[in-house]
Amino acid sequence: xxxxSQHPSRVICKSGTSVKIECRSLDFQATTMFWYRQFxxxxxxxxxxxxxGSKATYEQGVEKDKFLINHASLTLSTLTVTSAHPEDSxxxxxxxxxxxxxxxxxxGPGTRLTVL
Amino acid sequence: SQQGEEDPQALSIQEGENATMNCSYKTSINNLQWYRxxxxxGLVHLILIRSNEREKxxxxxxxxxDTSKKSSSLLITASRAADTASYFCAPFGNEKLTxxxxxxxxxxx
Lengths: 116, 109
Known about the structure:
A: mainly beta; B: 5-stranded antiparallel beta sheet; 5-stranded mixed beta sheet; 0% helix
């Protein structure tokens, strides 16, 4: 399968700081990229959908000013958690869709964010 | 978007046995994808089956799709300890993938 990388894999930060997470599709161009979060023992929750060169579409209840998404190219999307608080501690997973005719969607390895 | 509902929620079998997981969904789809997630890791793409396909194989995996019943199944044959993970189905219409709670598979050595 295709490869999606995510960096960093783990980050610990102080409350009030901002954290940027990068997501790259390494061997294909992604028409659309997605950001999910996952709390312990729960399923993945979709946060937002982004297309290259346009604004991200956020799911209901997700604050767009807190979770900034920049889809700079067909292979790179970034998620910035601004003014992080302990309740933002979670597992963040990005995903990239390959597009027609496959429409397969591949996931990164995830980023564990801990806010102290 | 729609999410699949996996059944059973949890499954424990002896190593070497076959494991079958089921997925149901509600509206029409273009394809359905199955994923595996090990604890604390991202999702691994296992297989994609298109709406005009009825069965697909990949190694020890066999996926079926019945669009009339809006259901799919994932069969893992000759299970191994490394197959212990959560498994998710993701029916895809034309927008975004969302996920249910998955099937937690435990292979007992």
